[in-house]
Write a structure and sequence with these properties.
This protein has four domains: 2-234, Glycosidases (TIM Barrel); 299-420, Galactose-binding domain-like (Jelly Rolls, Sandwich), CATH 2.60.120.260; 430-456 and 749-801, Sandwich (Immunoglobulin-like); 465-728, Glycosidases (TIM Barrel, Alpha-Beta Barrel). Helix content is 29%, strand content 28%. Helix 11 links the parallel strand 21 (462-466) and strand 22 (486-489). Helix 10 packs across helix 20. Residues 307-311 have low confidence and may be disordered.
Amino acid sequence: MLEFVRANQIIARGHNIFWEDPQYTPEWVRNLTGFELQSAVKSRIQSLMSKYKDEFIHWDVSNEMLHFNFYEQSLGPNATLDFFETAHQSDPLATLFMNEFNVVETCDDINSTVDTYISRMRELKQGGVEMDGIGLEGHFTVPNPPLMRAVLDKLAMLRLPIWLTEVDISKKLDMETQAIYLEEVLREGFSHPSVNGIMLWTALHPYGCYQMCLTDTDFRNHPAGDVVDRVLKEWQTGVVEGETDERGSYSFYGFLGEYKVTVKYGNKTANSTFSVSRDGPLYDYSAYTECKAVPEEPLYNGGIIKAGRHSNSGSGVYTPSFVFHNLTANTIYCFSSWVKIKGADSTLIKASLTRDNTTFQSIGTVIAKRGCWSFLKGGFLLDSPSNLSFLYLQTSDGREINMKIASASLQPFTEQQWRTNQQYKINTERKRAVTIHVSDERGDRLQGARVKVDQISRDFPLGSAIAKTILGNFPYQNWFVERFNAAVFEDELKWYSTEPQPGKVNYTIPDQMLEFIRANQITARGHNIFWENPMFTPSWVRNLTGPELKSAVNSRIQSLMTQYKTEFIHWDVSNEMLHFDFYEQRLGPNATLQFFETAHQSDPLATLFMNEYNVVETCDDINSTVDTYISRMRELKQGGVSMDGIGLEGHFSIPNPPLIRAVLDKLATLQLPIWLTEVDISNKFDEQTQATYLETVLREGFSHPSVNGVMLWTALHPSGCYQMCLTDNNLHNLPAGDVVDKLLNEWQTGEEAGQTDDHGSYSFNGFLGEYKVMVSYGNRSANSTFSLCRGDETRHFSIQLEGI
């Protein structure tokens, strides 16, 4: 059998070394006890793994140990641990699995719940077992897709590859039903990022198969075989062809694997091959904001920190710490750890990096608590190599405290790996597969129909601030409309602009700006109702106290939100309240809560935001750490606030990509839409550097699944912009403007054109948004539109040509 596998370059799993079910244990083995049995099992491992060293990609060391325990009953509770140790010693490069049934198939089996499986694997790992993978047999009756996905999600927390190892559907069901259920299982497995492979349990015998066959004994497909053939075709890139663009480039989106490429130009031809594979590790978006009794497993199995769940502790100013040698340049390092303290109820802990005794960088923070474990997540980017680096945790104020850390991880990514991870998320979160079906008036599918598709609007809001300077400036208006689908008014809605003197409310300018917005179908954010910074509070308001101030703020909310009811997609109710507290100082600690309540009553459909700076930009600002922001939002929600979104201003100096992503991961646990609301790069940098950093920020925002929109803070004035301009005053692009144009082009589906296949279908992957489609066949044609919104399934759209 191995010769056949080798000859056809087929990979094979080794199944199994031991089956814990005594029914399937050799009779002579069942009669052994003590030393004889121990000798026999050791001989079994060494013989098998020596015989087939390097031949099998995996070994199922222990099969079905949650249901049966023949060896542990006979050899003691450490028998399985000894099996894994001996297997690892016999072949240190072997990939070792546990394998179990009824973990993913059902939750009715109390012996094999997902938590039981996780607990057993953790128990073995703590005992020192080298375990490399999780086997899920997959003998289904009626599959439960959400349960499957939930089980896979939980198992994925162990950061081990998962395989569905013995998939079939019960033979008590008819063949057609088997096929339907098989397709459900295969799609769940193939689409889950932690599933690394699927094996069907469909070995063909003269009498049939264990539960389900793909073919009869003459190799004619059963319905289940048709399903397998169909998904194999769907999950493989067909022939892709086209012409290079003006830059000599041709792009396509393909399944991972090996490719052959043929290129022709005039009378010249060249052939080559290339491979498309996962480039390095997948980024782990896991984040935790609750304090836990026990820390979770380390991300990436610890990465280049190999301590695993082992904990470090210390009470010095710079302990606990890690020492790293030879960290590489142009590498992104993601750091995470669980932290617990003694000696204080809670304190802000900061992770910092020093390298070669010269530079210092804060890379992440967490509010740690006594008696439970808190999760810190952050990272750093090295633009030059470091021979010797120290990563240490300390209190933000530098005082000593007893601190314990566990499950620490440092995972490196090359810049290309980081970009690949971004593109993976863009392809899965910002795009969707589409199949257009073309038929005649009788409903018969038409092969060879010409299909042309154009994207006419984008789903993802990417916009900019505007100021009154846009009014009457038609070249500026045209430039803006050609690029952006969202806007925010820079100053014109702020209290000092609409009511510079008490009672003299004037909405003339914002009304005119809103006319421009409406006329061009641009969405707009309402910024802001209150700014907690007294410097930007109207001078007459600063002089109010008590009932007068309360009356003024209520009037402000009601006037503004009545004037612009349903006009703005969001309202920033409270701006920069982590740094300033003008209203809470004067109206009491519940002032912000009352602002949100009054705003919600004034317009129940309004989407209400908080908005803050230095949450995502840096972790050096102790007033606005990500945990501080989360804590404040939870506090307000517990007080009954209707809060619908999280605003992150995004006024960056030097962006830190892993910190940006870590902050977004933590905020995503609140399950609220996140917007980057005022993005720019400091004007202390030259224009080219601003552009480079802007691209970094925009790619991080667009690729993160919890970011729902990005606004640039680039309103154009005769004097320039707040920090960064996209163009000069003649609307000629600056480098930052080139970046925006490049990304807008990259993140929009270009013209798609081709012919329907033999099923009358034409398929493509497109960015979310609105599309126009034109279909022609012979002398008949039809036009239509469709929308593409978020969804896991392929979007199917049908067009019928009349009179053929």
